[in-house]
Specification:
single chain; eight-stranded antiparallel sheet; 8 strands
């Protein structure tokens, strides 16, 4: 019972921060996340573009799910759709090939995201970087730090 009370208190805090529209978006996003996990298994990684509010969730397969990002006092990252697309059939997968493991880390003295794991965009002229998160909550926390300070990590 205490756990339920704690969860309810957290929900009330979130409702106050995000407002009713934000809470509805958060709830819908959580329903989509659960649906995606039932269909594809657990989230493998979430790629968050550090230069603009853009993110993709990647599930096993690899299956890519475009994400929506809300900005403001309570930033959130959540699935934009309730299904995924095979990585190879997406424009992103076709232009960047197979997922690779060429991960880097931002400098330990980086002002916003110290020691953050990221991928460097090799096919983009501006050299965008993609922060790697392991959950939607972690990606939302990264967006909160990047808000109004978008840019490459290197």
């Amino acid at each position: 019972m205490q756990s339920l009370r704690d969860q309810y208190a957290q929900l009330l805090d979130r409702a106050e921060e995000a407002g009713s529209a934000g809470l509805e978006a958060l709830t819908r996003g959580q329903v989509w996340q659960q649906s995606l996990e039932r269909r594809y298994g657990e989230l493998v990684t979430l790629m968050l573009n550090t230069c603009m509010p853009l993110a993709y969730a990647i599930y096993k397969g690899p299956i890519l799910v475009p994400c929506a990002i809300t900005l403001g006092d309570c930033p959130q990252v959540f699935p934009a759709w309730d299904r995924g697309l095979p990585w190879d059939s997406t424009p992103y997968g076709q232009s960047h090939g197979k997922l690779h493991k060429d991960y880097r880390r931002s400098p330990k003295d980086h002002s916003l995201l110290p020691d953050q794991i990221y991928l460097k965009e090799t096919h983009h002229p501006q050299g965008h970087t993609w922060a790697i998160a392991k959950s939607y909550a972690e990606a939302s926390a990264l967006v909160a730090k990047l808000q109004d300070h978008w840019g490459p990590l290197d």
